[in-house]
User: Fold these one by one.
Assistant:
Number 1:
Amino acid sequence: MNINWYPGHMKKTKESIKKNLSLVDIVYEIIDARIPYSSRNPDVDGILGNKPRLIIMNKSDLADAESNKIWKSYFEQKKIPVVNVDSLNNKGLDQVINMSYVLTEEKRKALENRGVKNRPIRAMIIGIPNVGKSTLINSLSKRKGAKVGNRPGVTKANQWIKIKGDLELLDTPGILWPKFEDKEVGLNLAFTGAIKDELLDIESLSFELVKRLNLISTKFIENRYNISVEDKSPYDIIVEIGTKRGCIIRGGEIDFNKVSNIILDEYRKGVIGRITLELPN
Ligand SMILES: Nc1nc2c(ncn2[C@@H]2O[C@H](COP(=O)(O)OP(=O)(O)OP(=O)(O)O)[C@@H](O)[C@H]2O)c(=O)[nH]1
Ligand SMILES: [Mg+2]
């Protein structure tokens, strides 16, 4: 889903998230492990205030394992709790549950002191489009099951889902706007599929991706497409990949649209490799 964000829209979103914030004990801020900086909403700290928060680096399976560790310690140094998750394959979910208990200890104690016993921890997910909010909700709820239904006294529209460890999760995630000001960030979002391929046309985007991948390591393109990239421009490389993959139109010309889609698609699916696009400064 792609959303055009306008100031009015952003304000509304912020308000509705703040309203939901008052219903939960902890927030899961979900980001893309391949672009942990670019996939964070720029205003998230202000929106969350002092609410306990857990950063979920989702799609960790698509990101480089060593870079996952680097980012994890980066956030930990900033005293922001973080877990690596692959919500497509249910990896890291137990850590999410355990950390939820740890991070809400104060709140649980306060409730107990007021005589409220065994009240489930309530959580909600927030994140920019396409980071995996729905997939995470599904994988967390699969383990425990059914919807709780409308809770009396709580806004009708809010459905709660029981998840493992007697937690409850708000079934509607907060969809936040991405950063838009920075060109590099825009490219990262487009490479990973977080925004529609409209920032650049698909052909320019694949050129930029080939350039970027080769900057990280030439082995990715070389191994995947079985070609040498030495002394070749992105244009030459794409022509070679296109030829190999039979992306040819009448007259023997390269079908740049087709080959560009192949390259982008293969990066996004992780078949070119587990590649993290940015590291902490
Ligand atoms: N490899 C991998 N793919 C994932 C993971 N989580 C989500 N995906 C994929 O990422 C894409 C987007 O996932 P969604 O759960 O729809 O993302 P969303 O945040 O709900 O997206 P919007 O509702 O559009 O904002 C889907 O193709 C998922 O299969 C993950 O941990 N690993
Ligand atoms: Mg969704």
Number 2:
Amino acid sequence: MKAVVYERYGGPEVLQVRDVPVPSPGPGEVLIEVVCTSINLSDWENLRGSPAYARIGGLRRPARRILGSDIAGRVVGLGDGVTRFAVGDEVYGDNLAGGGGFAEYVAVPQAALAVKPPQLSFAEASAIPQAGAIAAQAVALAEPGTRMLINGAGGGSGALAIQLAVAKGVRVSAVDNARKSDFLRQLGAEEVIDYTSDDFTRHGPYDVIVDLVAHRSVFAYRRALARGGRCVIVGGTLRTLLRMLTIGPLLGLVTGARLGVLFVRQGPSHFVQVAEQCASGRIAVRIDRTFTLDEVPAALAWHGEGHALGKVVVAVRNETA
Ligand SMILES: NC(=O)c1ccc[n+]([C@@H]2O[C@H](COP(=O)([O-])OP(=O)(O)OC[C@H]3O[C@@H](n4cnc5c(N)ncnc54)[C@H](OP(=O)(O)O)[C@@H]3O)[C@@H](O)[C@H]2O)c1
């Protein structure tokens, strides 16, 4: 089968399109014929081996040779003990631990998958699992009528989080680069801040801050929080992560604010509700561009270099309905 493979950390140029064996599904796994896969910031981080936590399991060389964790496709084979799916089922899910989506076939644990809602295309379904789980758990922290700031709001998770929050009656402030301002307002943000020319920690106060690309000090976050407010980081630099885990709780004890890390729980129980809202038309999956499997290096560059409004999708097969 055709797959996009990498053997060392680097930019999109280290990716190669190659012929590799079709994987065999192990116990509890299903073999999926991939129709679409979407790109997450975690793919870009695992490609580059940066931040440092992206090298867990592969300090010098990547442990997994094929990236791509958000997958939508058709079940074509069953490993021992698979009970939830049958050959022919249309499924989608996030194989965050195993990756393998930048390929024509991938073996995925059945526990990571759900049946694709018929109202969603494969492209739309592939754009939801990881970003949807992050968005749902972030928005669950905010109450209707409160002010929530999302930093890194113009990407995959942010675009879903803004819509989920607005639908819940939360007042959203969105931070990203100025090219994304109109997009963020269309999604429902009432305040938009350009991170290239402004400092969101000088605005506020906010009841909840969710940082998807965190690199600020705990004191800066504290400054932007309302009394009793809560700040969580979801991704960002290792330094910020460590500070949030160590200094964050101490600062919280003194000031009453809650500062910490949102460890996102993965799996269908966390993204299916988001997909259902997309299927019903309550919120929308925002796909910026679609690339072919051969174009995965260009797709990762497009995403990683900050052009994308919402999600970037790779159509592995030419059938996205
Ligand atoms: N905690 C967990 O368990 C867990 C699990 C999975 C993923 N994650 C993390 O969750 C995050 C989700 O990201 P995603 O896939 O939604 O990312 P994404 O689609 O790449 O979106 C990130 C957005 O942040 C913007 N951005 C970049 N630098 C920024 C800055 N300094 N200030 C403000 N905005 C900035 C980007 O815009 P431009 O680059 O265009 O400027 C982009 O619009 C990632 O950090 C990932 O590592 C966490």
Number 3:
Amino acid sequence: MGLFSKDIKTMDDLFVHTLRDIYYAEKRILKALPTMVEKASDPELKAAFRAHLAETEGHVKRVEEVFRMHGAEAKTVTCPAIDGIIDESEEIAGEVADKEVLDAALAAAAQAVEHYEMTRYGTLIAWAKRLGRADCAAVLQRNLDEEKAADRKLTGIAESKLNIRAAE
Ligand SMILES: [Fe+2]
Ligand SMILES: [Fe+2]
């Protein structure tokens, strides 16, 4: 999207642009998750990150499938929002000395990522349906369901132990 040329003219252009945004985000998350697996101390948190890493590989593939179905070129557009969320989480993680406080920080950072993904997929699904692409919406819904489940799992781990230990 250029500064002087308005490249997004239609709802369909907007849908494809946003698909490229989440494609960029998923790829960025794929690169960030192994470090989070490494930094987490709690075995359950580590396992949750590892499981979501595997799911994220599937998310990238499903987004590519939607590009194919919709006849749009699979390419990324830089998403400063996810860059900011991940940069901030890495910065905070680098400043936390205590392992238990770090686990709470990592879970919170991951949930910020999940919520970003949830807002994007929610919008993409609504737009796909509006554009008559219920087929694309169904594929995107599978990603959204996994983001929501990952978020719920992290809430459970954080509230049942990470936050309690971090506050002790
Ligand atoms: Fe994802
Ligand atoms: Fe995710």
Number 4:
Amino acid sequence: MRRYVRELNVKLGSSARGVSLRKFGSAGSVGIYNEIGNIPVRNFAWGRWDDDEVFKITGETMAKTILERPYPCTTCPVACKRFVRVKPGKWFDKEFRGLGPEYETISLFGTNLLISDLEAIARMNEECDRLGLDTISTGNVIGFIFEAAEKGGLISKEIEGGLRLEWGGNADTVIKLIRKIAYREGIGDLLAEGVRRVSEKIGGQDFAVHVKGGLEMPAHDGRAFFAHALSFVTINRGGADHLGWPHMPWRGGIAVPELGINARDDRYNESEEVVDIVIKMQNLMTVYDSLVMCKYAFTAGLTVTDIINLLKYTTGKDYTVDKLMEIGDRIWKIERWINNQLGGITSKDDKLPKRMLTPHANRNDTKVPYVVEKWLPIYYRKRGLTEDGVVKELDV
Ligand code: SF4
């Protein structure tokens, strides 16, 4: 076991993706995701922001500016997390040394709100961390209220304390909103309810971006990868959960030979084969969750065979690829059953928000994942659900 883990540490830490994550963190994806339309811009209405602005908040720029060193979770050879140092100035009274923003935070507070000040985003990240707020949900709800103010009639642009709700405005407004949300002060009391409930109260459901259960959208877009869209509507943890399945077979060409998955470059493939791939990858990620393993281990090169070997050395038991898939599928079904029984979740809830079914307003080289509607009945059949998306029987 010890020898195997030592060898794995070398393999994962020296792989091209492992090295890239160590150098640039998860934010190393900001530039490429802007290029392909996977990053949120203006509450997901746009599919791209100005390259020069985006460049200011990439992982590469962070490495040249505020990054002090890569920071690992215990014993991790990849060290994707960022330990940053920001000098005293506009955003920090004293020198700040601590964890810096990751891809999702930079996207939801940066491109999503049209803010390209990395130090300001580091402060927003720190505020959210200290106050116990999720940066994805917080960036989403602020993006939603900015759009509501822009559209007019739902909420005025000028609110309490002279704050102006507008894209790319003073980043200080966002920091103040974060604090208001945490303490439920003024407009923060409304925003603390999340995008779905805010839209139910003030209107704007057409541009309320969330998937079943009201969980806000991560910084990934079904209009960049159709397979994303299918996984977003079928994953069990709240809604558009980007950790429920890795998009790497498409995004970066990672093959999973043990599951018969080849590296891909056909992100708009509409064939039934995509349904199989999504199910297999969801099952694999469920196994990752159960083993409490980081999804970046997959990115950095941990194979299914490695997992089977680690399980053997840890438990003495022989697992197979089929067994892991069976376990992943069973856990997925238990989760779905709980959602069916306690949440009343059925096929009626497996829907993309309207915004995800609308073309990006400022580019025409991305596509709308209408295909999800065609895929869902196939997905239910392959998962052994009824046509309404309900688990028929549990095999536990
Ligand atoms: S365990 Fe995962 S999240 Fe933690 S530093 Fe390593 S790669 Fe990053």
